[in-house]
Fold this sequence. Notes:
This protein is an all-alpha fold. The chain is elongated and about 50 Å long. It is built from four helices and no strands.
Amino acid sequence: MSTLRRVSDIITKENELFDRLWYGRKKPFGDPSWEGVPDDIKAGAERGKRRVEEQIPREVLDQDVASDWDWGFLGGSISAIRWVLGDEWGNLDS
């Protein structure tokens, strides 16, 4: 018989998945999509990426974007956790 997880544990996991989803959506800084983006926005994104890289192993971050299946699994995971916490189904905001 399994036990229910504490809400604090679920929120901790949601925060991790949020960071992984946010990170996976950011193109490398040499990508043409960054052209024209203000320097302060780029600097903030760079700080954010470094923060995520310090907290989550690179292998995990790379696996998240390794295939469409992996990316979809990440999205489904965060959507399910958010639903359990009372959000609308399918919320993939990051």
